[in-house]
Automatic annotation (TrEMBL):
<feature type="domain" description="Reverse transcriptase">
    <location>
        <begin position="2"/>
        <end position="62"/>
    </location>
</feature>
<dbReference type="InterPro" id="IPR043502">
    <property type="entry name" value="DNA/RNA_pol_sf"/>
</dbReference>
<protein>
    <recommendedName>
        <fullName>Reverse transcriptase domain-containing protein</fullName>
    </recommendedName>
</protein>
<dbReference type="Pfam" id="PF00078">
    <property type="entry name" value="RVT_1"/>
</dbReference>
<dbReference type="InterPro" id="IPR053134">
    <property type="entry name" value="RNA-dir_DNA_polymerase"/>
</dbReference>
<dbReference type="InterPro" id="IPR043128">
    <property type="entry name" value="Rev_trsase/Diguanyl_cyclase"/>
</dbReference>
<dbReference type="InterPro" id="IPR000477">
    <property type="entry name" value="RT_dom"/>
</dbReference>
Amino acid sequence: MCIDYTDFNKACPKDSFPLPRIDQLVDTTSGHQMMSFMDAYSGYSQIKMNPTDEEATAFQTDRGLYCYR
């Protein structure tokens, strides 16, 4: 299934959150005993969401309306 988010993306406000450079990330970890990374691939669907925000994650396809669970 492929979903076209073009119209949805046009309607959403744009925020600028540039990714930091890798050398800056490495430098900021200097002197710390531990470093942690969230696995965005397998951990994404496991992030707790406020139930009032669930409706905003819905998307519609030709097969129906789908919501985050």
